[in-house]
Design goal:
Blueprint lengths: L8 H14 L5 H13 L3 H6 L7 H15 L4 H5 L1 E4 L2 E4 L12 H11 L6 E5 L5 H9 L4 E6 L2 H13 L6 E5 L10 E6 L14 H4 L4 H4 L7 H13 E10 L5 H10 L2 E8 L5 E8 L3
Parallel strand pairs: 3-4, 3-6, 4-5, 6-7
Antiparallel strand pairs: 1-2, 7-9, 8-9
Helix pairs in contact: 1-2, 1-4, 2-4, 6-7
The structure holds S-adenosylmethionine (SAM).
S-adenosylmethionine (SAM) binds next to helix 7, strand 4 and helix 10.
Amino acid sequence: MSKDHPETAGAFFQHIKTSLAAAGIDNPAFEARRMIEKRTGINQAALISEPGLALSREQKDALFDDLSQRMAGKPLHRIYGEREFWGLPFKIGPETLEPRPDTEVLVEAAIGIYGDYPPKRILDLGTGSGCILLSLLKEWPESGGIGVDVSYEALQVAQENARILGLEGRAQFICGSWGEALNARFDLIVSNPPYIASDVIPTLERSVRDHDPILALDGGEDGLDAYRQIFFSLPRLFSPSGIGLLEIGFDQEESIVRLAEKYRGSVRCVYHDLAGWARVVEISCGDK
Ligand SMILES: C[S@@+](CC[C@H](N)C(=O)[O-])C[C@H]1O[C@@H](n2cnc3c(N)ncnc32)[C@H](O)[C@@H]1O
């Protein structure tokens, strides 16, 4: 097909939808609508009521580019460099994990635990795009927090997200490995660390394996390396009432309970995702 055709929004929609379906991509109509809206501003209602709307040369070129990247396996959120999390818009980059709905279980758990008395100081270990820390700060206007990541590039994205969300005054970002560089105490420590066992990574879906950064996925031989580092630091980083909320892999609950005990902590509660998998553990240390 020549780049000059199709010409209208409706014809483009059909072309994209058919191409995505032929490539075996799930929800081709949804993605086609999203692409048209992103590049032209024409929403679903207008697409139905005015399918004959003409597109500009730039709009058509952008759509053809998006389509070829999508057909090559790049997720739509990666093409646009943005993803919604907790109802908020987040920029993402090559060095950040694409925030996942499962991680919202952690945010929801935190809000449920604290109710009307939010924690003052929050620490987010492995902050990536900053999605967990910034969502919590958006909910809790009196709280402040630090996001740590070993990836400087990821932190630049997190910083940009803080600015866009108007939270730069309450969110600080530090480059370092887990809690190592910190000399402060926190009421709430959150983390979604890399937890995939190294030998499982080649078997992951292509969209994950090829597009999420390895640093965000690889949890070492048994998937638990990051938890060991984090559990080791928790007693030193918790305020007297401090608790931790950690995302875990769907099959890691038992290993995490054992690991927490080994490091003088305990799992107080387990929160499940919509599919029923154990997804987040609440950790405390000592007698708390
Ligand atoms: C699974 S991603 C989570 C990102 C983000 N918190 C989220 O939920 O979307 C794990 C993050 O841990 C970071 N990370 C990996 N090793 C680290 C380390 N040694 N110290 C701090 N952060 C690390 C990665 O760069 C990545 O951003």
